[in-house]
Structure formats: structure tokens, C-alpha cells
Design goal:
Elements lengths: L7 H22 L20 E2 L2 E2 L8 E12 L15 E11 L2 E8 L4 E11 L9 E10 L14 E12 L4 E12 L4 E3 L5 E3 L4 E12 L4 E10 L11 E9 L3 E8 L6 H7 L10 E11 L1
Antiparallel strand pairs: 1-2, 3-4, 3-16, 4-5, 5-6, 6-7, 7-8, 8-9, 9-12, 10-11, 12-13, 13-14, 14-15, 15-16
Length: 298
């Protein structure tokens, strides 16, 4: 028999090895297992389906009904003449949306400008999940009809325009979220002119590519600072749109969201904003706006 008094290190090594093997054996024989914690997707990347002029990655849960009020005053560069645009001609959109299925949100809205009627839909493609999925991704699209008198259009299809957007977002910390959204706008009808050779030419392309970037920083549980930037990408023959710089304040509850902000976009319909915006931030052509959303869960 070996003398373990002369080799204490060898003795303890063998002792701990036997204990480890015994522990493994007991664990294998035991019928009690530790519960596996289910990893859930990240919640509340943003406080609303809107951040100022853009949709966010958020899609309400199945059975949710939402009513939107979006208001834009006139530009502030006239100063006190129209109380910084508050008494100038304004634009407003009323919308209602519903989530009939999980990850799907559909809606309809009407905008004061040209009484445009929009049908829209959002679908959540990916959901940020710790350890599994680093981002959230949502697809948004709409179709807009201009219902003005038919004398404004050569063909019925000229009334329609379309917008599609891939929204990619990440909740980086508990307080800060960011998203980037490439988009495509399409108008069946665009303004034309007759060139020197007598040939009719479009002043703009029917299509327009753009990209939007948004950020949200929570100051408290219910308040946040919101910022955004929209960059046009397509170059047209004339009337190239200006970028949009926007910033504002948001307050939310479980069923409400209120945002007040300033930005260059004067419109509300996204394809009109991206393709036709002529407000130039270099000339202080900012517009004060606000969004109000009310959410019900059934």
C-alpha cells in the first residue's frame, strides 16, 4: 500500500477526482433537472410604431387596434408673421390600424393634402433575441390613391403611388435604440415637359430610392429624445428632393404615445416626402409637427 502521508498532493488529487466522478454519477442518476430559462425577444425597441415621419420596426401584438393623429404646421421661417408656421396652412393625417395575426399590422389612412387615401401593412420578419438574433427587421409597404377629379389624370392608374421599406433596428442598451431603413418610392405618374426637340420628357424618374436613420434615447421610463435623418439617393432631371433632419421629444404610456418635433418634411405620406420634399434645412425651412397614437388590445 502506498504511503499517502509522504505524498499529500497525490492524495488530494485522487480524492477530488473521485468526488468529481461521484458527482457526475449522482447527476446522471438524479431525476431532478434544473429548469431551462426560455429566451424571449427584446421588448419596446421603440415606444411607438412611428418616430416622427417614419415607421419603426415595432409591430403591435395580435388583436391590437391603433388610432393615429399626425399633424404638420407650416414652415417656421416666416417668424412671427404666422407664429412660426402654427397659423400657416397645415397638413393632417388620420389613420387606423389593426393586428389580425401575429407579426402582421394592416391599416388605412386619409391625408388632408390632396385627400390621399393610403392602405398599408407591416410584417415582422425578425425579432431581436439575446444570444440568437442580434437585430429586428420589419417590412413595411403601402399603396396610395389620389382621389381628385379625373381631369387631373390621363389614366386611372396615374392616381396610384407605392412605397416599400425594409426596417432594420437594434435595441443597443436599455436606453438607446437605433434603426436604418432603405426604401423605394414609385409614382405611376410624374410631371413632364417638352424638350427643344418637341419630345415629352419626365422631370423626375417614376422611382426614388432613399434611406432613413433614426435614434431614440430614453431619459426616463416614459420620456425620450428622438432624432432622425432621411437621405435621398436617386438623382432626378430636376427638382431633386432635400434631405430631412428631424429631432424631437416623446412621452409614452402603455397605450399612448405623443411626439412633438421639428423637421424638414412638410408632408406625411412617405413616398411624397421622400420624392418631393423641397424644404431646405439650410434655409431654416423647418416644420413643427406632432404625432398622437392610441392603442387598444382585444
Amino acid at each position: 500500500m502506498k504511503n499517502y502521508h509522504k505524498y499529500p498532493a497525490l492524495f488530494f488529487a485522487k480524492f477530488f477526482l473521485l468526488m468529481l466522478l461521484a458527482g457526475n454519477s449522482f447527476a446522471q442518476d438524479s431525476t431532478t433537472t434544473a429548469p431551462v430559462k426560455k429566451v424571449k425577444p427584446v421588448k419596446n425597441t421603440f415606444g411607438s410604431v412611428w418616430v416622427m415621419d417614419n415607421q419603426t420596426v415595432m409591430v403591435p401584438i395580435k388583436g391590437s387596434l391603433e388610432f393615429d393623429i399626425q399633424h404638420r404646421f407650416g414652415t417656421v421661417n416666416n417668424g412671427a408673421k404666422d407664429l412660426f408656421g402654427i397659423f400657416a396652412p397645415s397638413n393632417i393625417r388620420l389613420g387606423i390600424s389593426y393586428a389580425p395575426l401575429k407579426k402582421l399590422f394592416v391599416g388605412i389612412g386619409v391625408t388632408k393634402e390632396r385627400m390621399q387615401i393610403d392602405l398599408n401593412a407591416k410584417y415582422a420578419l425578425l425579432m431581436q433575441t439575446p444570444g440568437k438574433m442580434p437585430i429586428s427587421a420589419t417590412l413595411f409597404g403601402n399603396v396610395v390613391m389620389d382621389p381628385r377629379n379625373k381631369s387631373n389624370f390621363r389614366n386611372s392608374v396615374d392616381r396610384f403611388s407605392y412605397f416599400s421599406q425594409l426596417i432594420i433596428a437594434r435595441k443597443i442598451t436599455e436606453k438607446f435604440s437605433a434603426q436604418v431603413s432603405p426604401s423605394l418610392s414609385w409614382f405611376n405618374n410624374v410631371e413632364a415637359y417638352v424638350d427643344t426637340k418637341g419630345v415629352i420628357q419626365n422631370k423626375m424618374h417614376n422611382y426614388h430610392f432613399a434611406v432613413s436613420m433614426l435614434g431614440r434615447y430614453k431619459m426616463t421610463e416614459k420620456t425620450a429624445i428622438i432624432v432622425g435623418y432621411d437621405q435621398p439617393l436617386t438623382q432626378h432631371v430636376t427638382n431633386n428632393p432635400h434631405p430631412n433632419i428631424c429631432f424631437g421629444f416623446e412621452t409614452t404610456t402603455s397605450s399612448h404615445a405623443f411626439q412633438v418635433f421639428a423637421g424638414n418634411f412638410a408632408g406625411i405620406v412617405p413616398q411624397s416626402n421622400n420624392m418631393y420634399n423641397q424644404n431646405d434645412y439650410k434655409k431654416s425651412q423647418y416644420v413643427i409637427g406632432f404625432n398622437i397614437t392610441r392603442l387598444w388590445n382585444f
